[in-house]
Write a structure and sequence with these properties.
The protein is an all-alpha fold. Helices cover about 55% and strands about 0% of the residues. It starts with a helix and ends in a 23-residue tail after the last helix.
Length: about 80
Amino acid sequence: MLTLVIGWCVFAVCLFVPAVPLPVMFGAFVAVIGALLALLLLLRCPGCGARIPQVGFAEWWLPETAVKPGRCPRCGYDLTEPAR
């Protein structure tokens, strides 16, 4: 997630700075896309191994007051417990 946030910040700053080297802007873009793809493909349930990207996105983007998923949609594993 840190890569995603840093890449997004650099990319956003590049839009407002008049003379940014293309490799810096492209690198920030690749970092953002890479972090999102990693979250989609690599976040798995520790109980059954199913991909659960919606849980990662909800944990990161939803406000603290929102109801967040606490269980794996496939097997019901409690995701609030520490991993085994």
